[in-house]
Design goal:
Radius of gyration: 22 Å
Shape: elongated
Distance between the termini: 31 Å
């Protein structure tokens, strides 16, 4: 049923009457995520867009993002663009539950167990981008974006051996700062080669309390991560531009109440942009 709804949505996006100055894009990556999005000029320099992301090879809907941006052309070569995005997670991703042993093993009588439920809010993203086209094939851009999101966890822990029976409620707020620096070169109006370096830094505020056990703790943590996106896009067709992208990702480093590293795998992506 979920596949049918997602497919119907994609068909409606791509088969309806094409809006003026509208660009469509569809892609699939090594994380088994498929993305379909379109961006249209609404009025003047104001653009609006919608992005749909499916996961596990179209098995589940992951999230939907609505975007607005306004492009100010300072000169023929230089622009400044304020941006706003709102990402709404699907029920499958934004809400999660687990019941079983703490270590994920099979349930056994007298063992440790946890019953947990988690809910995530929407993510609001506020950005500003500027770019310059040198007129000889070279171009560059820079962007700063601030993202904020809330989450809530309710969990019940039971350990017969350690005589622990506790309920945990926690609230988290994630604040992320993202910096993008892009440089590219168009070879003979045929191939667009670009590199985008991304730095992400942020803070995760976790306020938790375990009632009846006199335990109230704050597990605030800082985190950071970097990525390098390498992209090659064929621009020889007028309205159809296929591309290949490869992203090199560093580990995510946590410092504070949560210490350690989270490994991130590199990922490839193939896709195409087309317009009417």
């Amino acid at each position: 049923m979920k596949k049918t709804i997602l497919a119907a949505t994609l068909v409606s996006l791509f088969s309806g009457a094409a809006l003026a100055n509208t660009t469509y894009e569809i892609s699939h990556d090594g994380d088994q995520e498929t993305t379909a999005k379109f961006d249209s000029e609404l009025i003047g320099g104001l653009h609006g867009g919608i992005e749909l992301v499916a996961m596990d090879n179209l098995k589940y809907h992951k999230e939907t993002t609505f975007s607005l941006d306004y492009k100010f052309d300072i000169t023929d070569a230089w622009y400044i663009e304020p941006q706003f995005d709102l990402t709404i997670p699907s029920h499958h991703v934004g809400r999660a539950s687990y019941y079983g042993n703490i270590d994920g093993s099979a349930m056994m009588p007298g063992g440790d167990e946890v019953n947990a439920n988690y809910k995530s809010s929407n993510t609001a993203k506020f950005g500003i981008e500027t770019g310059y086209d040198f007129g000889n094939g070279f171009y560059t851009s820079a962007r700063y974006r601030y993202e904020v999101r809330d989450g809530k966890l309710n969990a019940k822990f039971l350990s017969v051996n350690d005589e622990v029976d506790a309920t945990l409620s926690s609230k988290e707020k994630e604040k992320l700062h993202r910096f993008d620096l892009t440089a590219g070169y168009v070879v003979g109006d045929m191939v667009d080669l670009s590199a985008n370096y991304i730095i992400k830094t942020g803070k995760l505020d976790i306020d938790s309390e375990v009632p009846k056990d006199q335990l109230t703790s704050s597990l605030d943590a800082d985190f950071s991560q970097a990525e390098l996106e390498l992209k090659a896009q064929y621009a020889g067709f007028d309205n159809f531009k296929p591309y290949f992208e490869y992203t090199v990702k560093s580990d995510t480093n946590f410092d504070g109440g949560l210490n350690g590293k989270l490994k991130n795998d590199n990922v490839w992506k193939i896709g195409a942009q087309f317009s009417f």
